[in-house]
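Q: Two folds, back to back.
A: First:
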Amino acid sequence: MSAVERTEQEERRRDERQALEARGINPYPYTWPVDHRAADLLATFDDDTHDPDEGTPLTASIAGRITGIRVMGGSAFFDLQDESGTLQVYIRKNDLPEDFYDEVFTELLDIGDIVGVQGHLFRTRMGEVTLRASGDFQLLSKALRPLPVVKEKDGETYNEVTDKDFRYRQRYVDLTVNPEVRTVFRQRAEIIRTMRRVLDDDGFLEVETPVLQPLYGGATARPFTTHHNALDMELYLRIADELYLKRLLVGGFHGVYEISKDFRNEGLSRFHNPEFTMMECYAAYKDYRWMMDFTERMIRTVATTLHDEPTIAFEGESIDLSGPWRRVPFFDAIHEATGHDLYGAARDRVYDVAKHELSLDVTAEMSLAKLLDEIFSETVEPSLVDPTFVTDYPVELSPLAKKHRSKDGLVERFELIIAGREIANAFSELNDPDDQRARFEAQAAQRAAGDDEASPIDEDYLRALEYGMPPAAGLGIGVDRLTMLMTGQDSIRDVILFPLLRPEGDTA
């Protein structure tokens, strides 16, 4: 921001910075000896034990941002916020170096500045635990911009603190003024730790696979493309970890997992961000039935760790995750929701049902797989609130899953739906190289016909399968969506610290 664009308050804060420097005060010193956090002090202080008058004070050195100031003549209270919470601080003119209170604290410090304070705790007459600044007091960072306030914009009053676009673009401010947002991201970290703990305890090995890939695969999606100058070759950001993780099963590992970023060149929505976090795991000698039990146990453990019980809140109601969870085949779920039995139906009939019976937005060019997916997404998925495993998908929708052992035209696959959202996707993994080649070729034909989300043929992966991959089960869980579910957030942007947004000022 150039000088001519600065507000009056921003100019004033820069003048204050110059005044501080003129007094020999560095507005950006290097360190401060923090030995306590606000929340710990509030929890630890005891009136009987920590009595300054009896010579047993609770002393502390803390640091944080000033979020409120109340000056009362020769003394003042201010609110100091650190990562853990907010603590009231009391300062007196006579406790500070000469002229510091009158010429620095009351004149050159502002809400938003970060300071360090040393002192002891006491309880005010209003009953509030407070730190009295009786030791060193130092400015640690001069804030040159004010924290957001209610203001006028385009002739209307709005609050930057609650404005979604402002909060997503300036997450650093959002985290400062909305402490509950910090709680969501602490919970996200706890979710990932718990998933990792469950996987580690079950003997899975955490691994890393390439983000830059010469050929993308493992999902139906458009990739991001880049170029490697030294090798003069096109590369892709991975859309899934699957094919590399299954190569490791060929190599002899019995259980592997990865928690990582994937990238899909798709639109933005409440449930989609082009960069997202996935957990994928693969277990040799298991099938999708075993993986359903494992998935249920993992997610129930996550919920219990986060909420002390296996329940989550959804639209004001509690969802019980204690189990056992319902399991319903894909075509049975469609039949229940629409009254149409489409198992084994030809493409033309499926199109007619979708277009004319269900009034869905489908086109005559859509493949059978796309039509079935549209019917399921629009009629079944939103109605599944309690945890439900939808099983036994049509082979057209699942190019990497093993054929069903007893049902023609189906594969051993499940999706876990909770609160109308897909949370997990899993297969009995296809390990027949000839069957896999035929599926890849069918995908390639769809790609040639104009489906730019269909996967190309991965000859190296087929070669790996020809060496022999054991029977296995695989699972993918979208960490962002799971976090939305566990923390009660309505948008994926509320669980990603820095979501992708349109360019600032672009209203298209």
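A: Second:
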Amino acid sequence: MQAEGTLSGLDVRTLFRDSQARAARLKLLIEVSRELAAADRDGLDAAIDAAAVKAARFAGFRTGSLVEGGLTVADGGLAIPLQSLAERGRVGVSLLFSSPSNPQTLANEEDAAALSLLVEMIEARLTVDLQRRKEADLIERLAAREKELEQVLSRVVNAQERERAAISADLHDGVAQTMSGLHRHLELVHLDLAPGNEAAAERLQDLVRIARTAVSDLRGVIAGLRPPSLDDLGVVAALREEAGRLESAGHQVSVADGLGRRLPGWLETLLFRIGQEAFNNAAKHAPGAAVSLDLAISADRSSILLSVLTTGGAAPSDTGDPSAARFGLEIMKERLAEVAGRLEAGPVAGGFSIRASIPLAGL
């Protein structure tokens, strides 16, 4: 007679079979989980197909597959809709098990729970892939929009520069030539003036100086409209050329290049115009001041920074018309607003600071 509290041989065999079944289920779940996690985008379809077959055989079917769209379930088959995937935008996807081989395979709740976990793992991996595809598509569309925006900005800036080039050519071929001719004729008249008329000679000499100054100023305007160095050598070279003109007016000027590379033409043109306007402001409203201009890429590489610091000399609002300085800043703001840029400007200890920020937009 069997003692109370002891296990019979049948009980032991049952426990052993249950233990083996649990181990087999756990092994299957770990194996499928690892295969799905390791699959890259190119190998995902094969990994999903393999997981579907393993899930089907575990459930007592010979074949298993992922189907999408119209679904026909043969006699004895089993279809499991992937509802979570449908809620995220991929509708009509199901796991289809067919050709039943052992309908009694799912004999208990543990088997049913294991099958449910297999389905959830397949669905979760598909959901992750769907999200990644959506993100990739969004990034691609954003890149396309940025490219379109850059092309629009390029057309706008190029149109403005073509207008400047046309004005420059008209000034050079028209007004500049007339002023040069006037200057030359005045010099000749001065040379031909009869001796003894000192008052007339002095007035004529004044006219010669005015004409000479007008010609020089006009040439500066023409050069500033579109300097050749901007296209040939880049924005840093063009700004250093502008700095040279400022230095000739009595300023100490430095231009620091933190870019280290050329930028798209429209962006270099925009940076040049901002820097040029800042130099003009310094010349008009802070005579004799030291001016430092820095070009750099922001620490997070999201934008281009142009900083101009004017120190010494007269404060921008102390010389000439204060509204003129504000007008120059408004011009800069308008240019930057066209490219979603920002301008910060205001007095600092001993001078005036201008800081422009332009988004890189993927450059």
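Q: And?
A: Residues 316-320 have pLDDT under 50 and may be disordered.
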